[in-house]
Write a structure and sequence with these properties.
Length: 348
């Protein structure tokens, strides 16, 4: 069976991961009238049966890190429901299973962390760079092909954490000077029972940042549970998120009312960068995300530089002393209050 035939039968994931079969581009319609187009391996564009010009252009990506399997399973489930005519989308969709080579290898990446490669065109020095370039092109083409205004462009990049966390699910809102923290976006997080959101304060080179920075998309990196092998994920714990995702995809509009206090909001206070091989934490490298350190506690050292928790204390997120020199070793965050006009903002 060809790759295209497999996808047409709903097996988007299996066809994507089978690197022994050649890629075959193709277009077809589902029983609900939606148009599906397989653009490249792991990239599936879906157009609703009767576009109105007011629909969202919604990117849903998974597998940027190959060992983060629960989001990949959710994207496969969503693709299958749409392809098999069980779900009629109301919006333009770009479904992505990003890195089949790393997924098959059961690793986060092959040579470079791909979620640090979305700042623009990369030299084609390895497969991670090549795929990052292809994904940037796919998103650019997708957003340029629709009529959605910038606030109707969304990108949810689905991940799961490599360690435990005080919050089983949480979102990271990338920093951008564009208005990318819309009330509707954060209302969706509440409907999806996402426990916390973290507001970044500096630019990055992640996939969600790419869409926010270049296309003013309402973009988030979503951390959904913890890394596990295929078949070992407890998807029941992610049921509120998936049900909210189904509503987002299938309904023309979703409720936009933000309920203050239903989700913990953090602001990033500092980003610790690894400057040498001497970088070390004063806690285990697998320390749980959002572990709190009281004011003055010794956090880390890098040669002659020492880091201590600031006034009021800080919590650590994504600690990893084994990153390459020049990359982020962790984020430090504090709980914060926010105000909401058209955009979510940290209160002064």
């Amino acid at each position: 069976m060809t790759m295209l035939q497999q996808v047409k039968e709903g097996n988007f994931l299996g066809a994507t991961l089978n690197l022994d079969i050649a890629f075959e581009r193709g277009q077809w319609k589902t029983a609900t009238g939606a148009t599906c187009e397989l653009l490249s391996r792991g990239v599936l564009q879906i157009t609703p049966s009767a576009p109105t010009g007011e629909e969202k252009s919604l990117v849903l990506s998974s597998g940027v890190h190959g060992d983060e399997t629960s989001p990949i399973e959710l994207i496969q489930r969503l693709a299958e429901q749409i392809i098999c005519g069980q779900l009629a989308p109301s919006h333009r969709l770009l479904l992505i299973i990003a890195h089949p080579d790393a997924i098959n290898n059961h690793t986060r990446f092959i040579e470079e962390n791909m979620n640090r490669l979305f700042k623009g065109r990369n030299q084609a020095r390895n497969i991670d760079c090549v795929i990052a370039n292809q994904l940037q092109d796919a998103v650019s083409h997708f957003y340029s092909g629709g009529s959605a205004s910038s606030h109707q462009r969304w990108h949810l990049d689905l991940h799961c954490a490599i360690r435990g966390s005080a919050h089983y699910t949480f979102a990271v809102s990338p920093h951008s000077d564009n208005p990318t923290r819309d009330e509707v976006l954060f209302a969706f997080l509440q409907q999806a029972k996402i426990e916390a959101a973290m507001l970044s304060n500096t630019p990055s080179s992640t996939f969600s940042w790419y869409s926010a920075e270049n296309f003013s998309a309402q973009a988030l990196t979503l951390e959904l549970g913890r890394v596990a092998k295929f078949g070992e994920n407890d998807l029941d714990k992610l049921a509120p998120f998936y049900q909210a995702l189904l509503r987002l995809v299938s309904q023309p509009h979703i409720a936009s009312q933000w309920q203050d206090g239903e989700m913990v909001i953090y602001k990033v206070t500092r980003t610790l960068i690894k400057h040498s091989d001497d970088f070390r934490f004063n806690f285990p490298n697998d320390q749980a995300n959002f572990t709190f350190f009281a004011q003055g506690q010794f956090l880390a050292a890098d040669q002659e530089t020492e880091y201590f928790a600031l006034d009021g204390g800080e919590s650590v997120v994504f600690p990893n002393a084994n990153v390459a020199i020049g990359q982020r070793a962790c984020l430090l965050v504090k709980e914060t209050e926010v105000s909401l006009g058209e955009q979510l903002k940290v209160k002064d």
